[in-house]
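Saturday, quiet lab. Running sequence design on the C-alpha cells for the scaffold JK sent over.
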C-alpha cells in the first residue's frame, strides 16, 4: 500500500469526510428535485483514533453515526474528504490493497443476532468469516480459540443463533471480527437491547480485548452511560456533523454544546434547572432539508438570529476539546457551576 508513513500515535485519521446519498436520482429526475433529495448523511466530519484508543460516537438515531462508521470501512463511497488508515488513504487504494486492509478494519454489526445466518452453527459462522475473506487454512485460528477469546466455551460451537442469548450472539459477532486479526473495530451499538449484566459483560470484554490485543475502537452508541465508561474520547454527532469532541471526562463533566448537554441531562447528578433548560424538544429534523445555519437551532433554547443564518465552526473550548456553537462560553456563563442554576438573565446570549 502506498501513502505517508504510519503515525506513531494515530491509527485512523478522518479529514473533512462527506457521504451523500440520492445523487443517483439526478439523471432520472429534474434538477430541482435532485437538489432537494440529496441527503448529506455525513457532512465534513473530522476525527482521529489513536492506537489502542476507544472513541465513542454518540447521537440520536439519524445523526449519521452508522453511515460514518461504514464509510470509514469503505462500505459507502465518500463524496469528499479522506480516510487515512495507518497513514494510507483508503479511498485511493487499489481494490486488492483495500481487500487486504479490510482484515485490519473490522465491524461488529448492529443487531448481532440478525446478522448471523440462522442456517449456520457458530462453528460454521466463524469458518464463513474466513471463507469470505479467502484466508488460507494455515492462517485460520481454531474455533475453540476464537470462542475462548470472547469467553465462550467450546460447547457453543455446535449451537445455532436461535439457541444463543443476546449477549452470546454479540460475542459470536465479536469473534467473527477477531478472526481476521484486526487493529481497528467499528462496534455499532454493541450493547443495544442487552440486559444490564450482559451490557457489563460486553463492555468489559471489549476493554480486555483492547488491552490484550492492542485494539482501537470506534464505538457507535446512543448509550452515554456505556460510552462514559468505555471511551477515551467522545464525539457527539448531530445531523451529519460532529458538534463536540473531547476527552470523555471533559465531555461528561463539562459539556459545552447545548446538544451534548441535552443528551446528558437525563444522567443523574445534573441540577434540575439545567435538566429543564437542556431537555431535548421535538424530533431530529429531516436530514434531506436540514435547518440553515446551526442545524440544532430549531431545538436549542439558546438560539439567536445568528444561529439561523451562520453555521458555527468547530473551535477550541478547552484542552483537546472542540465544540461547534456560537455561544458556548456565554451559555456556560449563565450556569452557576456549583448548582447548575441560571446566574443572571443578562448573561444569556
Ligand atoms: Fe444553540 Fe446557536 Fe449554539 Fe447552535 S450555535 S447550539 S443554535 S446557541
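Result came back. Writing it out in full:
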Amino acid at each position: 500500500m502506498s501513502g505517508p508513513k504510519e503515525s506513531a500515535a494515530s491509527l485512523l485519521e478522518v479529514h473533512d469526510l462527506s457521504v451523500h446519498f440520492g445523487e443517483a436520482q439526478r439523471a432520472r429526475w429534474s434538477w430541482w428535485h435532485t437538489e432537494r433529495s440529496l441527503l448529506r448523511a455525513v457532512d465534513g466530519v473530522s476525527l482521529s483514533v489513536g492506537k489502542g484508543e476507544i472513541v465513542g460516537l454518540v447521537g440520536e438515531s439519524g445523526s449519521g453515526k452508522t453511515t460514518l462508521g461504514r464509510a470509514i470501512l469503505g462500505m459507502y463511497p465518500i463524496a469528499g474528504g479522506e480516510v487515512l488508515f495507518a497513514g494510507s488513504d483508503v479511498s485511493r487504494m487499489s481494490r486488492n490493497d483495500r481487500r487486504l486492509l479490510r482484515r485490519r478494519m473490522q465491524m461488529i454489526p448492529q443487531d448481532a443476532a440478525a446478522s448471523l445466518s440462522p442456517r449456520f452453527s457458530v462453528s460454521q459462522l466463524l469458518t464463513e468469516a474466513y471463507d469470505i475473506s479467502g484466508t488460507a487454512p494455515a492462517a485460520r485460528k481454531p474455533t475453540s480459540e476464537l470462542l475462548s477469546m470472547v469467553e465462550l466455551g467450546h460447547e457453543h460451537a455446535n449451537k445455532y443463533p436461535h439457541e444463543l442469548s443476546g449477549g452470546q450472539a454479540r460475542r459470536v459477532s465479536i469473534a467473527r471480527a477477531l478472526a481476521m486479526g484486526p487493529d481497528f473495530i467499528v462496534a455499532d451499538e454493541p450493547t443495544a437491547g442487552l440486559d444490564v449484566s450482559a451490557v457489563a459483560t460486553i463492555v468489559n470484554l471489549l476493554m480486555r480485548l483492547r488491552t490484550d490485543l492492542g485494539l482501537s475502537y470506534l464505538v457507535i452508541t446512543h448509550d452515554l452511560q456505556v460510552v462514559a465508561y468505555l471511551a477515551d474520547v467522545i464525539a457527539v454527532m448531530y445531523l451529519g456533523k460532529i458538534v463536540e469532541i473531547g476527552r470523555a471526562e471533559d465531555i461528561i463533566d463539562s459539556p459545552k454544546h447545548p446538544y451534548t448537554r441535552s443528551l446528558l441531562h437525563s444522567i443523574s447528578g445534573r441540577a434540575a434547572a439545567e435538566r429543564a433548560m437542556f431537555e431535548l424538544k421535538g424530533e431530529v429534523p429531516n436530514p434531506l432539508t436540514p435547518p440553515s445555519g446551526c442545524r440544532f437551532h430549531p431545538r436549542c433554547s439558546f438560539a439567536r438570529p445568528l444561529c439561523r443564518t451562520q453555521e458555527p465552526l468547530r473551535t477550541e473550548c478547552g484542552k483537546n476539546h472542540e465544540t461547534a456553537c456560537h455561544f458556548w462560553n456565554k451559555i456556560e456563563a449563565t450556569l452557576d457551576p456549583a448548582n447548575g442554576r441560571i446566574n443572571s438573565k443578562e448573561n444569556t446570549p
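Notes for JK: The longest strand covers residues 10-21. The two ends are 50 Å apart (CA to CA). Ask whether to fix the surface positions before the next round.
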